[in-house]
Amino acid sequence: MMELYKINETMQHTYYQMPQELFDNEKYKYLSIEAKVIYSFLLNRMNLSRINYWINNCGEIYLIYTRKEIQCKLNLSDKPVTRAFKELRDAELIKEENRIIVKYGLDMIENTNRVGLAALIDVSSNKLDAKHNDRFDRSRRRKKTKITSSFIGFTLAPRINAAGRVRSATIAVELFLSNNYSDAVKIAEQLCSANKERQAEENKIMQEAYEKIEALDIKKNPVIVLDADDWHHGVIGIVSSRITEKYSRPSILVSFEGNDEDIDHLENVGKGSGRSIKGVNLVEALMHCEELLVRFGGHELAAGLSVRRCNIEAFRRKINTYAAEHLDEEALCVSVDADCEVGVRDLTMTLAQEIASMEPFGISNPVPNLVLRNVRIMRIVPMGGGKHLRLVLEKDGIELSFVSFGTGPAQFDFELW
């Protein structure tokens, strides 16, 4: 008699019948009951004729799909679209089957017939027709925008997230539920506007944070802890990431925004967001300071917390003491991992196309970093209102243009030759 096992799927219970061969065939004797449940689930859910597997010497089970099977099954639904957004937005590992799913998800996004998503792509990439029809027809669109992991991570996802950060998350929901292209375009424009608000707030907080950091003795503060009364709670996490990246040390930003004026000033509760580096587990560092915190949670490299104003100074001292005991000097050095050194004549469109063929990029499959030494800076041109720089570099009589995103003139420590 074959047994039935229950798998919980998004608040609904679905039952799958386990094949009798899982119990009768000697081949499957090493599989645990949990593995047999997963095997049966995949057989039923993906309707695959078989799933190959192998077991390593630790007893871990690896399921092996063929590329053809994955492609066939992924084209049946929009789940890879959701997966592509999630993996790239949340900076999850882009390897093994994740990378395959994200690859097909990106292709599906590029060719989407979903009105809201198409409108957001068109508005974000400035490919919106002057007169757009109420009825969306992808086949009549101009040249489609190339959808890459960078386009998701730096263009689409920030606009979707901006709604919840500075306005209301329902705006993004309305966009994806829209069936009318004209309406979807208007909502997409609201998301772009919200993203500009988020960027303006981020730049304001970042400038104030840099001024506070200049007043600190960085060498005595392996963890940068900053606080203010009016920083936007939805943006401080982004700024914390920028600070950690720039200074190569953990950072925590706390905002006391929104406290009731009737409450004792010292009892105000601030909400904080932190980012860390390898070598300091942020949650363990917060556990070391838990008697000073109202609450906290997160993981090794990112966390959130609440702290009373009366405890902020003690918290700053204690977490820095903890970090000083667990961090070495090398971890605090700003470094860049490079894949290889190249010559100026190696930088061709052919190389760019070969690198692009390695998409999608992300954690565990990063964009290659190439080193070109001993170049002369010929021109420095601010872009995007001073948020980015375009550089003209020269070596061996050859001039090349480069763009440094997220670097303004004040942060660029080099001068013209």
Estimated radius of gyration: 26 Å
Count of helical stretches:
13
Overall mean confidence score, pLDDT: 77
How would you sum up the global shape? globular
Largest sheet: 5 strands, mixed
The poorly predicted ranges are: 1-17, 45-78
Helix percentage: 25-40%
Structural class: alpha+beta
What do you see in this structure?
With 417 residues, the protein is of the alpha+beta class. The protein has helices spanning 21-24, 33-46, 67-74, 79-89, 96-110, 115-124, 149-166, 170-177, 181-214, 236-247, 282-288, 312-326, 349-356, and strands at 4-9, 12-17, 52-55, 61-64, 224-228, 251-255, 269-275, 295-298, 302-308, 340-341, 370-371, 376-383, 388-395, 398-404. A five-stranded mixed β-sheet has the order 5-6-7-9-8, sandwiched between helices. The model is unreliable at 1-17 and 45-78 (pLDDT under 50).
